[in-house]
Amino acid sequence: MSERTKTAIVPAVKAGDSTDQGFGSLHQVTIVGTGLLGVSLAMGLRAAGFSGRIVGVGRHRSTLERAEARGCLDQATM
To answer: CA–CA separation, 5 vs 18, rounded Å?
Structure first.
């Protein structure tokens, strides 16, 4: 038998809603992998009203720079 992993479920938030309603005490999200999926997640968080800090971790400086330039990340690191 395989072990089950615990997954945090964040409630859906409509754009324009207060961040306290959907994100509670969540102040920072760190996304490992800042390619298409990671940047899409960051953009989705912002569209949903997340006002906390989004940190991106990636392997390629060029990908991180593009994500920062588009305003998807507050901080990028390798």
So the answer is: 30
